[in-house]
Predict the 3D structure of the following.
Amino acid sequence: MANSYGKLFRISLFGESHSEAIGVVIDGVPSGIELDMNEIMFEMGRRAPGKNAFSTPRSEDDFPEVLSGVFNGYTTGTPICVTMRNTNTRSSDYHPEIIRPSHADYSGKLRYNGFNDYRGGGHFSGRLTAPIVFAGALAKQIIKKQNIEVFSHIKNIGKVHDDKVDYVNPDISALKILKNKKLAFINDDRAKDAEQEILSAKGNADSIGGSIETVITGIPGGIGSPFFESVESRLASMLFSVPAVKSVEFGIGQEFSKMLGSEANDSFAIEDGRISTKTNNNGGINGGVTNGMPVVFSVVIKPTPSIGKEQETVNVETKENITAKIQGRHDPCIVQRAVPVIEAATAITLLDLILEAKTYA
């Protein structure tokens, strides 16, 4: 199914941006996991709209109602079904005859023969990332029991770049406090500069994009398989399912294109009886399999396509070229809200890979 992901840890999304509710069915959760709802609500709050001037004014509680799969605070081993009500919709802002540039209005109309729910983007909406965050928060709790953690920071917003992360020995303490920041920059001064970039775009009825870098610590070597089941393949498949992600690169990514092999290779060494690499250009993965180093990748998030400027488009009913302003409540920058989504997508994929590794260990 197009709306399901995973093999042993499997999620299935349902709902639309302006439907009664959105939600997720999570299958493959081991029984006996104590669910920390406070931690899950914290993660949901990181993604939630309506928090500050950088976010859409649409305010949703994103309160998850757990319908099944949890009893007395512990997972039962059966499918977990979670719903979240849509309570602050404004469907009158959306017109099916006006095709919004860089949205899925037209492609969705073609795919579903005009029967798609166009309000707020329908099932194509970033609203559907809320249940992904719920599933990811659950996955994080499970993999943390194996000392595996996922950290993301904003690599850049527009021309403002954060400090670089040490791919070999990342500063865990600096990464851990990111989730408590309004903008997940390691360097607080750069975060202030990024705020001005966002507010400037907003003041000009425009939007701005950026990128997010993720570091996975504690992941053992030997996870993944070559070719079609590589760690890169599995992560990229999930990451590209997050709306607005337009590029994924592992390790130093495109910098490889400028280097000689002697510069790019990660030399191995033994220190205190442990085999590791002196550099980590490949981002902790060789041949599609983890090598025991931190796994590192980054994603590019495009600017929010909903902007207040006049744009050229078409009226599909009258078949005329027109100019139009997009109505509605939208984010001038979605990078900061995408950070917990990328972490969640990563944790979901990792748990699925780890459970799969146990079946052939």
Remarks:
- The first strand starts at residue 4 and ends at 5.
- The longest helix spans residues 335-359.
